[in-house]
Design goal:
This protein has 389 residues and is α/β, with parallel strands linked by helices. It folds into three domains: 3-123, Response regulator (Rossmann fold), CATH 3.40.50.2300; 146-308, 3-Layer(aba) Sandwich (Rossmann fold), CATH 3.40.50; 312-384, Helicase, Ruva Protein, domain 3 (Orthogonal Bundle), CATH 1.10.8. Helix content is 46%, strand content 15%. The strands form five sheets. A five-stranded parallel sheet has the order 2-1-3-4-5, with helices on both faces. Helix 13 (319-334) crosses helix 15. The protein is elongated. Residues 3-117 form the Response regulatory domain. Pfam families: AAA_lid_14, Response_reg, Sigma54_activat. This is Putative two component, sigma54 specific, transcriptional regulator.
């Protein structure tokens, strides 16, 4: 349910707009002047803000400039009964999402809200893409061994559904790539792919990260914050290293999966969510269940579909193809002409014990590109890759 703030000094306008929005199931709050509106927007996370232009104390343009300067990300829709083209153009130039003239038209309001919500989704997706584009540059699943072919076939079958998937495999084996492939081939591909590394977030912060928090829920919670479940609504939520999640967070994730609702930290209000959950772990969750560190009921909720990603040592025949793939990417990143591996270099790479899997292979290819000549030989691999005998 979207939360909307109305900033207008006319009570009748606020009331009329509230009735329209609440009838459409939006959650609405009001501010009777610009100062109050800025304060509310500073302390509360809104999805959309309606702001009148002509107001005492602080007019709408000042409110708009203040909110933009505070990096408020909610789309701001300006409304006015004294509008003209110049005013509308000025508002848009200063960062307003749209401009609506009074008297307010129901259809125009609803269309503008829909467009604003679409923009929010696109902005969030763009942020996620910017943080992952380098990581996933050339990220199609590379390999032709039986294990990889089976994974590709499984992804094609499972991706169009909303079935939850549990991906297992060693660190660096490519679990995240499988998760992204599931999203990219799904009906949710136009919506956000949100990733959470459960092992990288301190235990005391994981619930806030997943479910969000209300202002004042804890010392540093100075503003409402959406959690990853909310941000992934309509898209895919990837819970990486879920085996490291705390017992308290496990219980809340289980409820979210069972009921499709969450509660922000510090709130008792249920928020409906619609995110496909894909989880991954490098642990044996069956063993974790036996030793009391992972909930069996959560395991069964997550493991509707199981995909195991083989280690690089189990797919050595893919190493030449992977090495050449990374060679192309690394040479491009470093701005050098494409180098090549000699046959004996590829043989040497296949002899290495790849404890770090695909991630280690990529790092070694980058090392070889930096330290070696235009043709990387077997001796270069022996010298710089430190193969284990």
């Amino acid at each position: 349910m979207a939360k909307i703030l109305i900033i207008d000094d006319e009570r009748a306008i606020r009331r009329a707009l509230r009735e329209i929005l609440e009838f459409e199931d939006f959650q609405v709050e009001e501010a009777e002047n610009g100062v109050e509106g800025v304060e509310k927007a500073k302390n509360t996370l809104y999805d959309i803000i309606f702001c009148d232009i002509k107001m005492p104390q602080m007019d709408g343009m000042e409110v708009l400039e203040t909110l933009i300067s505070q990096k408020n990300e909610a789309p701001i829709i300006m409304i006015s009964g004294h509008g003209n083209i110049e005013t509308a153009v000025e508002a848009i130039k200063k960062g307003a999402f749209d401009f609506i003239e009074k008297p307010l038209d129901l259809n125009r309001i609803l269309v503008t809200i829909r467009n604003a919500k679409d923009r929010v989704v696109l902005v969030e997706e763009t942020k996620q893409l910017k943080t992952t584009v380098r990581k996933f540059k050339g990220s199609s699943i590379i390999g032709e061994t039986d294990g990889i072919i089976k994974i590709k076939e499984m992804i094609e079958k499972v991706a169009p559904s909303d079935a939850r998937v549990l991906i297992t495999g060693a660190n660096g084996s490519g679990k995240e790539l499988v998760a992204r492939s599931l999203h990219d081939l799904s009906n949710r591909r136009k919506m956000p792919f949100i990733e959470v590394n459960c092992a990288a977030i301190p235990t005391e912060l994981i619930e806030s990260e997943l479910f969000g928090h209300e202002r004042g829920a804890f010392t540093s919670a100075v503003k409402d914050k959406k959690g990853k479940f909310e941000l992934a609504s309509g898209g895919t939520l990837f819970l990486d290293e879920i085996g490291d999640m705390s017992a308290s967070a496990q219980a809340k994730v289980l409820r979210a999966l069972q009921e499709n609702v969450i509660q922000r930290v510090g709130s008792e209000r249920d928020i409906k969510i619609d995110a496909r959950v894909v989880a991954a772990t490098n642990k044996d969750l069956r063993k974790e269940i036996e030793e009391g560190r992972f909930r069996e009921d959560l395991y069964h909720r997550l493991a509707v579909i199981l995909i195991h990603v083989p280690s690089l040592n189990e797919r050595r025949d893919d190493i030449p193809m992977l090495a050449d793939h990374f060679l192309t990417l690394v040479c491009s990143d470093h701005g050098v002409s494409k180098k090549e591996f000699s046959d004996d270099a590829l043989i040497e790479l296949q002899q290495i014990d790849w404890s770090g899997n695909i991630r280690e292979l990529r790092n070694i290819v980058e090392r070889l590109v930096i330290l070696c000549g235009s043709k990387i030989t077997g001796e270069d691999v022996k010298m710089f890759a430190n193969p284990k005998k």
